[in-house]
Amino acid sequence: MQLCFNQATTLENSNLAKDLEFCDKHGYDFIEIRTMDKLPEYLKDHSLNELVEYFQTHHIKPLAFNALVFFNNRDEAGYKEMVDEFKQMMETGKKLGIQYVVAVPLVTEQKILKEDIKNSCVEVLKELSAIAEPYGIKIAVEFVGHPQCTVNTFGQAYDIVETVNRENVGLVFDCFHFHAMGSTMEDLKRADGSKIFILHMDDTEDFPIGILTDEDRVWPGLGAIDLDGILSTLKEIGYDGAASIELFRPEYYQLSAEEAIKTAKETTVKSVSKYYEFDSVTVG
């Protein structure tokens, strides 16, 4: 397994240049680049070619763009804007060597029938799949464990991806989101691990299901999520992608960027290494 850093973990106390410096220093293999803020911020003072050169001359590599948000059940104008954004991600991602674009389902207070949600997701993902195919970039759909997200359980998301049935469309498995809306281990045990493209590592304080928010996340191994059950099951079903640490903890934003990146590595490796061997990472 390889170790990845998601920039949400240092969202308020770092930037892309610093994240890259400290992640490379501490032996991370990959980074998930935030396209809604951290990449545009970087490009104000740097060129895309500088970023390409950085990845060419350092160990750390780009794993994913995070994220294409609210891809399903859009109105006509919103849909066109989303597709245009995705096409731009393809062009930029090809230059950088991005493997995945994380796609986040619509979050809304509007009530939408599950059938309509599924039909929209399947239709849009098939179109995005066709756009992405010549670029060699895959789409990783991330269900969000919140009542207002249109796709909020693993079982629902896996059914959508199975229906799409494209090699370049799979899932992000986020431990927090799996726990937060009560996704079942039985659904995970029945899944094909090759359909899971990215593993997001995190943990959470022990609040009731349905009211958890991203700010409740804590370092892996320090919370209430059954990480042992999740990781052992992922191993059994054949997941062999990266482990990417993703937290949104306000207290952790008070740390220095390097301290957060170092602690993220140590806690993630400690949890995951019970079930997986890391290719090149050691705790230190």
From TrEMBL:
Signal peptide range in chain numbering: none
Xylose isomerase-like TIM barrel domain: residues covered: 21-262
Keyword Isomerase in record: yes
Pfam families: AP_endonuc_2
GO molecular function: isomerase activity
Keyword Transmembrane applies: no
Keywords in alphabetical order: Isomerase
Official protein name in the record: 2-keto-myo-inositol isomerase
Phylogenetic lineage: Bacteria, Bacillati, Bacillota, Bacilli, Bacillales
